[in-house]
């Protein structure tokens, strides 16, 4: 490590660690560990291990996580572009394992960008339930949205909000909440020297104030009996045990579920020994802190959030009378959101707008009827001419700023539906009328990822009985979806988006 550790930091760590300090200090001479986490939304751990050219050693605290060998470049493999794994620092895989997410849960990831832990939560949900991923900084939500799209998440919503506003819109709503808090980042000094340069003696106190506010909002949004995991990547007790002690004093219905002192997790300091620490001189990973907090199940104040809506989009059935009506009302509600491209109703009181939007939904349904089976289900949300399928009725978002109100399906232009890239990445080949598998071994997958047109004889297409050969093809890499192509007369026109290409 080239950057000099700050003197005050060294002094504080000596006081904290006593005779363990030298062992801790020696870790700064070592190379940080790298890891990948298998995206079980798309592939099983066993299947990835069988396919992967990377030497993979299991990470003890995460059953889907593996250390990568020094010098490995997991981002430079077609499987990365097919969303088969997420590249993640090994210790950063621990907090979600402690959250205990099961399919069907309503989960809030309050400080989510760029999405490492959100993609891990989504894999645990397996498409059932709801994931709201939020980050306060709008620039950072772009990477968050892109990662959720790359990993094929269907039931996610991305917000760019202040946690207080989310708590006000969703009081007592979530079964599980993760706060991967903004922090002084001391645990990342070995990996990210910028963190060293930004650190000042006052930095921990500044973050501690922020963390306490975020914890208070999370307490409001959590359901009675729910679980909250708080994590940081710093060593400072002020931001760790200190933030938790302040929280517990103000929230008597919460207690710590003890995890410190089990397996790889060292105990937290003082009375909060049940919280957990990962120390770089004790495990193969960077420094982390985690606290699992559970609400005792007593009644909590909080208004009901209406998550019921008669409007769900089913693409297989032709829209019945009445079904189309409710589609219109969903669209009107969507207009109350503050999403990109939302247009106000015109002088006709919104009737023209509503019928334009009904036409857009109908264009999607026509396309989907030919292209997709089984039908994806959810609440349709139209922002301008962009169509999403949301796990929540749009009204439930209560005007919160949605970067992605759901799974992006595509755009309707001049009455024609154009499928979006995130629709493809979340599909399995058997859900598409036409699919094609390219090999990662012979260069054709990379040619596709570079945006090249490919010569593909018709025998290579997998076409469902009754579907024409010509049209959109779900392009897969060794059987795992990566994007769209359009096939005609032996040529595959490349639809892989420019901003995602292999460089
Ligand atoms: C440690 S990072 C999160 C990393 C992320 N959980 C992951 O696994 O990829 C903390 C995040 O908190 C965000 N943040 C900072 N202040 C916040 C606040 N008051 N509310 C919500 N997010 C905040 C930052 O923009 C940053 O992206």
Structure, explained:
The protein has 503 residues and is an alpha+beta fold. It folds into three domains: 7-295, Vaccinia Virus protein VP39 (Rossmann fold), CATH 3.40.50.150; 313-424, no CATH class; 427-500, Archaeosine Trna-guanine Transglycosylase, Chain: A, domain 4 (Roll). It is built from 15 helices and 25 strands. It has helices at 7-17, 21-26, 45-51, 78-81, 94-99, 116-125, 138-150, 163-169, 193-198, 203-221, 241-250, 323-335, 351-371, 421-425, 444-449; strands at residues 34-38, 57-59, 62-68, 85-87, 106-109, 130-134, 156-159, 174-180, 222-232, 254-256, 266-267, 276-278, 288-295, 313-314, 377-383, 386-390, 402-404, 407-413, 416-419, 434-438, 454-455, 462-463, 471-477, 480-488, 491-494. Strands 5, 6, 7, 8, 9, 10, 11, 12, 13 and 17 form a ten-stranded mixed sheet that branches. A six-stranded mixed sheet has the order 21-25-24-23-20-22. A five-stranded antiparallel sheet has the order 14-15-16-18-19. Helix 8 packs parallel to helix 10 and helix 10 packs across helix 11. The longest helix has 21 residues, at 351-371. It binds S-adenosylmethionine (SAM). S-adenosylmethionine (SAM) binds at residues 92, 110-117, 135-137, 140, 163, 180, 182, 210, 214. S-adenosyl-L-methionine binds at residues 111-117, 135, 180. Residues 24-296 form the SAM-dependent MTase RsmB/NOP-type domain. It comes from Paenibacillus agri. The active site is at residue 233. Residues 322-338 have a biased composition (Basic and acidic residues).
């Amino acid at each position: 490590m080239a950057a000099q550790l700050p003197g005050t930091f060294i002094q504080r760590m000596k006081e904290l660690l006593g005779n363990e300090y030298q062992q801790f200090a020696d870790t700064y001479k070592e190379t940080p560990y790298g890891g990948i986490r298998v995206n079980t939304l798309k592939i099983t751990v066993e299947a990835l291990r069988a396919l992967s050219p990377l030497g993979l050693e299991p990470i003890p605290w995460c059953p889907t996580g593996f250390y990568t060998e020094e010098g490995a470049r997991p981002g430079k493999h077609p499987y990365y572009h097919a969303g088969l794994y997420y590249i993640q620092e090994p210790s950063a895989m621990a907090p979600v394992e402690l959250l205990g997410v099961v399919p069907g849960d309503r989960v809030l990831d309050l400080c989510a960008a760029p999405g490492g832990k959100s993609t891990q939560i989504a894999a645990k949900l397996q498409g059932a339930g709801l994931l709201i991923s939020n980050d306060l900084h709008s620039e950072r939500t772009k990477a968050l949205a892109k990662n959720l799209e790359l990993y094929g998440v269907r039931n996610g919503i991305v917000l760019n909000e202040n946690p207080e506003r989310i708590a006000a819109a969703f009081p007592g709503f979530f079964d599980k909440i993760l706060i991967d808090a903004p922090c002084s980042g001391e645990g990342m000094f070995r990996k990210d020297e910028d963190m060293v340069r930004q650190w000042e003696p006052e930095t921990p106190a500044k973050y501690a104030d922020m963390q306490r506010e975020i914890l208070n909002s999370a307490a409001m949004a959590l359901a009675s009996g729910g679980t909250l995991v708080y994590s940081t990547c710093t060593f400072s007790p002020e931001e760790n045990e200190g933030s938790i002690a302040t929280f517990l004093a103000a929230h008597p219905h919460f207690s710590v579920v003890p995890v410190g002192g089990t397996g790889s997790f060292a105990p937290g300091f003082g009375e909060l020994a049940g919280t957990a620490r990962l120390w770089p001189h004790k495990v193969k990973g960077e420094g982390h802190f985690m606290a699992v907090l559970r609400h005792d199940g007593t009644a909590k104040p909080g208004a009901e959030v209406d998550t019921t809506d008669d409007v769900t989009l089913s693409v297989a059935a032709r829209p019945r009378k009445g079904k189309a009506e409710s589609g219109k009302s969903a669209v009107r509600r969507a207009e109350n959101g503050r999403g990109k491209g939302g247009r106000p109703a015109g002088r006709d009181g919104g009737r023209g707008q509503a019928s334009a939007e009904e036409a857009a939904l109908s264009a999607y349904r026509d396309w989907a009827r030919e292209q997709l089976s089984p039908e994806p289900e959810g609440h349709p949300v139209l922002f301008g001419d962009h169509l999403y399928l949301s796990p929540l009725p749009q009204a439930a978002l209560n005007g919160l700023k949605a970067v992605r109100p759901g799974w992006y399906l595509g755009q309707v232009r001049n009455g024609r539906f154009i499928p979006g890239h995130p629709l493809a990445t979340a599909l399995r080949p058997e859900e598409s009328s036409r699919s094609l598998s390219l090999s990662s071994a012979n260069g054709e997958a990379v040619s596709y990822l570079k945006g090249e047109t490919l010569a593909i004889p018709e025998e290579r297409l997998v076409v469902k009985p009754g579907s024409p050969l010509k049209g959109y093809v779900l392009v897969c890499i060794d059987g795992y979806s990566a994007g769209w192509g359009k096939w005609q007369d032996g040529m595959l026109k490349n639809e892989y988006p420019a901003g995602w290409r292999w460089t």
